[in-house]
Specification:
heterodimer; A: eight-stranded mixed beta sheet; 12 strands; B: seven-stranded mixed beta sheet; 7 helices; binds flavin-adenine dinucleotide; binds iron/sulfur cluster; binds FE2/S2 (inorganic) cluster
């Protein structure tokens, strides 16, 4: 068994393997919530999973850096003592969608480098990612515009394609190999027909995508600062600064750090998700705030998502096409990424050389 | 694996009252090995913790060529800084760092140096001024301009007096508002420019202070004929992590904590915002 190989296995047989692994690791996957929502959470058994879902409203990034993560505990004394709280417990993420895997790949790059974030990396090293390719999109999905899905070439440990009663399994890593080695019987190499079948499923899924986001033009407009100032003014006026778009975005990473006293002499330092769309995000102790106005913050968000400087730095633009910001944005239909991309494309200033003589 | 967020304990050796709201702390690391290994460049900063209150960034203001301890000058403005001001000699802070790129020091040897500091902007520049004195022969003309709100708002009054007495540096000071004891210049720091002679071609200018001051200083330096890459400034931003992860300090695609806080005007002027 090797990375890159493809197999077919009966669905129940695959899920039985996951059940057998549950004692050694948290098993996390899609479950049906009370109002028909899908919620990714830890389960006791794979029988709690729902397979009838497209994606969850919340991004999967929370299983790597939760909304609030304790960094270390301290004890106040003449000499304070502290103890790091790095979570290395193993987890298996089952059923996450391609776009979220792409988000994680961005995080992998972002949280490494000269200053590697050991909290993220410890969690990441102990996570097995089993993604499931999408057979149908939500009406907000546009991953095909962003290289976010609906299926992936790499980035997963195992990728499943749902064939009804069977899975087509792509092996993406050594972790994936190890997991699949636990399958006792029934695993067969995928045939050409199986691969053809997946191709058809993916083509059908592609053809059902509704929102379109031609990011290339938006990248050009922003990079060359051809966006009319009044357009940012309008967007700033429309934005509620709720920060929803950044919280649901699988690509966004920002956080805040603070101390919390649990007793008069002990406490924790934690970090929690933060948003560049909040007015306090850049406010300095002097009271000076370089991004006081919503307009400046919106500009910041899309500069980060779409400028070529960031494309160069990160190797890709800042969107995987999950469509969550469409669902969550309070300024309905005006400030989600596809909407802004469309506005930048239509309403941006033409290049000086395009303005005619 | 190193933990980015765990501070080292540092003991306070000395506290000096600089102004009614500003103190200078001299510190050394409790861990001797760490204390020995601790080295920094002028212009770099540390993240200082008061456990239970939080963490905040401060420019290192001591001489990087002198080892054994280090100094920070802190103005009380909020939670962490007020808690720091409550501390006594022998108390400990948590310290992470040094972070940031720092001022070019070796690179500007052989040039004339002009330093323009405003208020609490002098501390980070002091970490450049002192090593220049140590290697004074390697630099040309040396001018320091310092502006503060009032005479008592000036930090390092002893050091200023010492520098004023030296003949290998020209120190000019000004205050926005004078008092009966003040016989020097009154006016913003840029009013000192007409009192000095510089050759922009052979000079590197370093500036640090409130954003509005920096803006006017740069404007005047450009008018005097300074090239964009001969104007070196610091950018300040609200910071949390200090290591390019939390996102707070980003301007354009630069993270001030790791790509800065020191930039040339050439680098700053192309940022999409300031
Ligand atoms: C690279 C860098 C280097 C720096 N170097 C230095 C330096 O060398 N020296 C230095 O002094 N600073 C320096 N600063 C600024 C310093 O980091 C801030 O002053 C510090 O973070 C403030 O933290 P705080 O928790 O005390 O303030 P916060 O609690 O965050 O203050 C928040 C706000 O509340 C207000 N506030 C809160 N409590 C009070 C109160 N009791 N009274 C009045 N107002 C209040 C403050 O005015 C402020 O607007 C530097 C900053 C950076 C980014
Ligand atoms: S910008 Fe919107 S659509 Fe793109 S990845 Fe983020 S939340 Fe999803
Ligand atoms: S954006 Fe693409 S990968 Fe993500 S849930 Fe929708 S169809 Fe699937
Ligand atoms: S302070 Fe966190 S990214 Fe710069």
């Amino acid at each position: 068994m090797k990375v890159g190989q493809k197999y077919v296995l009966d669905k129940q047989a695959f899920l039985a393997v996951l059940d057998s692994l549950r004692r050694g690791a948290k098993l996390i996957g899609p479950t049906a919530g009370p109002d028909g929502d899908v919620i990714f959470r830890e389960v006791e058994s794979t029988s709690e999973f729902t397979h009838d879902y497209v994606n969850e409203f919340d991004p999967i990034k929370r299983f790597f850096i939760p909304h609030r993560q304790d960094l270390f505990r301290f004890q106040l004394d003449k000499m304070p003592k502290f103890e790091p709280l790095v979570d290395t417990s193993p987890q298996i993420l089952f059923g996450i969608r391609s776009c979220d895997v792409k988000g994680i790949l961005h995080w992998d790059k972002f949280f490494t480098g000269v200053y590697a974030d050991n909290y993220y990396l410890a969690k990441r090293a102990n996570t097995t990612i089993i993604s499931v390719a999408c057979n149908r999109p939500l009406d907000t999905c546009f991953c095909i515009c962003c290289d976010g899905g609906p299926w992936l070439e790499s980035g997963f440990d195992l990728q499943l394609s749902d064939f009804g009663d069977r899975y087509l399994i792509d092996v993406g890593s050594a972790k994936g190999v190890a997991l699949l080695a636990k399958v006792k019987k029934g695993l067969v190499a995928a045939t050409r027909q199986d691969l053809e079948h997946r191709k058809e499923l993916m083509a059908t899924c592609d053809s059902q995508m509704v929102p379109t986001a031609y990011v290339a033009k938006a990248i050009i407009q922003i990079t060359n600062r051809r966006v009319r100032e009044e357009l940012w003014d309008e967007m700033g006026y429309e934005c509620f600064s709720c920060g929803g778009c950044t919280h649901v975005c699988p690509v966004c990473t920002c956080y805040d750090v603070a101390d919390y006293m649990e007793t008069p002499t002990s406490g924790v330092r934690f970090r929690c998700w933060d948003s560049c769309q909040y007015s306090g995000f850049t406010r300095e102790a002097s009271g000076h705030n370089p991004r006081e106005k919503a307009k400046e913050r919106i500009k910041r968000r899309f500069y980060h998502k779409l400028s070529y400087a960031y494309v160069k730095l990160d190797g890709h633009h800042g969107c995987v096409g999950c469509g969550r910001c469409i669902t969550v944005c309070e300024a309905i239909g005006m400030l989600d990424l596809p909407a802004v991309v469309k506005r930048l494309r239509r309403e941006g200033q033409p290049a000086p050389e395009e303005q005619g003589a | 694996m190193d933990n980015l967020y765990l501070p080292q304990l540092a003991v306070i050796d000395q506290i000096v009252d600089e102004t009614p709201d500003t103190k200078t702390f001299t510190l050394h690391f409790l861990d001797q090995k760490h204390n020995k290994a601790f080295a920094f460049k002028p212009g770099q900063f540390v993240e200082v913790s008061v456990f239970g209150k939080g963490e905040a960034p401060f420019g290192l203001c001591s001489n990087p060529l002198r080892k054994g301890n280090f100094r920070i000058t802190v103005r009380a403005t909020g939670t962490v800084t007020n808690a720091m001001h409550q501390a006594k000699v022998g108390d400990v802070f948590g310290v992470r760092g040094p972070f940031g790129n720092g001022f070019p020091f070796e690179e500007v040897m052989g040039y004339d140096i002009l330093i323009v500091a405003g208020g609490i902007g002098l501390p980070p520049l002091r970490s450049l001024i002192e090593p220049i004195f140590d290697k004074r022969k390697k630099f040309g003309n040396f001018i320091i301009l310092y502006g503060a709100r009032t005479p008592s708002d000036r930090v390092y009054k002893d050091a200023l007096a010492e520098w004023a007495a030296r003949d290998d540096v020209q120190l000019l000071q000004t205050v926005d508002r004078g008092d009966e004891s003040w016989t020097g210049n009154v006016g913003v720091v840029t009013t000192l420019f007409e009192k000095i002679k510089v050759d922009p071609q052979r000079t590197f200018a370093f500036t640090c202070g409130p954003p509005i001051m920096i803006r006017f200083v740069i404007q005047d330096l450009l008018a005097m004929g300074f090239a964009d890459d001969h104007i070196i400034s610091t950018l300040e931003r609200y910071m949390k992590c200090g290591v390019g992860k939390c996102g707070h300090c980003a301007i354009g695609h630069k993270y001030i904590c790791v790509d800065g806080p020191v930039f040339s005007w050439q680098q700053i002027k192309v940022l999409p915002e300031r």
